[in-house]
Amino acid sequence: MDWLTGIISFCRDAVVRTFIVDNRYQIFLDGIKHTLIITLGALFVGVAIGVAVAISKVYYYQVGPYTIMGSLKLFFKTRRLEFLGRILLRLWDGFLNVYLTVFRGTPVVVQLMIWAFVVFATADGILVAIIGFGVNSGAYVAEIVRAGIMAIDKGQTEAGRSLGLSAAATMRLIVLPQAFKNVLPALSNELIALLKETSIVGYIAVVDITKAAALVRARTFDAFIPLLFVSAFYLLMVTILTFFQKKLEKTLQASDRK
Amino acid sequence: MADMDKDNVAIKVRGLWKSFGDHEVLKGIDETIKKGEKVVVIGPSGSGKSTFLRCLNLLEKPTAGQIWVDGEEITAPGCKVDNLRQRMGMVFQHFNLFPHMTIMRNITLAPIQKGLMSKDEAYEKATSLLKRIGLWEKADAYPNMLSGGQKQRVAIVRSLAMNPDVMLFDEPTSALDPEMVGEVLSLMKELAQVGMTMVVVTHEMGFAREVGTRVLFMDEGIIMEQNTPNEFFAQPKHPRLKDFLAKVL
To answer: Is residue A207 over pLDDT 80?
Structure first.
C-alpha cells in the first residue's frame, strides 16, 4: 500500500504548503472576509436600487404612459403644473430603461473595471466592488421585484386605498410583502449568482477568496488544494443560503394553509 | 327647500362622465343620495353601475362632472382623497382581504395606520365586530382558511372598523356559492337597520325589494329609471327595464 501512503503524504504536504507555511491561511481568511463583505454590501445596494426602480416603473405603468410633446401641449393649454410633472416622470422612466438596458446588457466585469479605473480611480477597491456589483444586481432585482408587484391582484391595492391608506402605505404594507413572498425564489437565485460573481473582483485588484487562491497557487505551484478549497467555500455558502431561503419560504407560507 | 335638505345629503353627483380611452362608460349622471338611504343599483353588465360606484370614492377618476360627499367637493383639485375614503367603506365582489395578514390584522390595519385608534382600541373594536358576526374564533386565522361567505363578512366589518358614514357595495354576493349569499345579505340588512347610508350594486332583486329605499336602473351609462322598490318592480316604465326584469325575475 505504498502508493496510498504516497498520495496521503503528498496531499498533507500540499495542504501544509497551501495553508500553513508563511501563515498563508491568513490570505484565505482575508479573502473570505472580503467576499462576504462585498456580497452583503452589494446585496443591500442591489435590493435598495431594485425595489426603488421597480416601484417607480410600476407607478409609471399605472398612471402613464405620457408623451413629452402631449404633456407639454396640455401644460401650455391649462398651465397646470401636473403636466410638467408628467414630463419629468416620462424622462425618469426613460432614464430607468437606459439603466436596465445598459447594466443588464454589458458584462459585469467590464462594468467593474469602468467603476474602478474610470469613475473612482482612487477609491477603496472593496467600496468600488460593492457599488459595481450592487448597481449591476439592482437592475436584475428591479425586474424580479417588478414582476412580483405586477402579479399582485389590483384588488389588493384598491382595498388598501379604499380603507383610506395612502399609496405609499398600501405599497409597503399590502403589495410589497405579498410580492416579496412570490419572488423569494428568484431573489435567492440572484443572491447566489451575486455571491459567485464576486469571484471576478480580482480584476480590480481586490483580494477575495478566489484571488487569494490564485496568489497562493502562484507561490506553491500547486493548483489542486487551493481551488478545491475555494470551490468548497462557495458551495458551502450557497448551501447555507438555500437553507435559509427554504426556511423563510416555510415561514411565509403560513398564510397559505387552508 | 334645497338649502334645508343640504345637511341631509350624503352624496351629490352632477354631470358625471367617465370614459376609458374612446369607450364612454358613464354619460352624464345626476344623482343625490340622502343620509340613511339604501340605494340599490341594478342593470345589465357593462351598463356602468360598477364604474358609477367606483367613482363615488374616486377609485375611478371621473372624466367630467362633480361629486360632493357630505358637502365637500371631492372632485375638486387638492381634495384629500385618503381622508374621504376612510369615511366611505367599500366592499368588493372578490372580497380583497389581505391574504398575508390574519383576520384580526386585516381589520385593525387601517384604523391603526390612520391613527384613528390606538392598538388596544382597534383590537377591542375588531373583537366586538367579529363577535357580532360570529367569527371571533377566526381572529388569528388567515383569509385562505375562511369560506367565501365568511371572507365577505370579514371584508364588511373591516370597512366598518373605520366607522364610515357611507358603505359602498360592489356586487358583494356575485362571487359567492349560493348557500353563502344569505349570510352576507343578512349582515347587510342588519347594517341597513341601524341606519347606515348604503349604495349597493347587486343582482339580488330580493335584497333590492326588501332593503332598498330606492332602486336605480342603469343602462348605457345613464340612470334610465328609478323609483321606490315597490313601484320599481310592480310598474316598470322604460322598455329596457321591462326587458331586464323579465330576464332576471
So the answer is: yes
Asked whether the beta carbons of B221 and B48 are under 8 A apart, the reply is: yes
Tell me whether residues A254 and B109 touch, CB distance under 8 A. no
Distance from the first to the final alpha carbon of chain A: 62
Q: Do A163 and B96 lie within an 8 Å CB cutoff?
A: no
Burial of B85 by CB count in 10 Å (0-12 exposed, 13-18 middle, 19+ buried)? buried
Of the listed ranges A39-53, A168-182, A206-220, B107-121, the one predicted with least confidence: A206-220
Q: What is the pTM of this model?
A: 0.86
Phi/psi for B198 (5° steps) reads -130, 140
- Residue of chain B nearest A153, judged by CA positions: B96
Q: What are the CB-based long-range contacts (under 8 Å, 24+) for B181-185? A: B181/B149, B183/B149, B183/B153, B184/B149, B184/B152, B184/B153, B184/B156
Q: Does B101 touch chain A (CB under 8 A)?
A: yes
What ipTM was predicted for this assembly? 0.90
pLDDT, tens only, A132-167? 999 999 999 999 999 999 999 999 999 999 999 999
Q: Quick one: closest CA in A to B59, which residue?
A: A158
The reply to whether A187 touches chain B by the CB within 8 Å rule is no
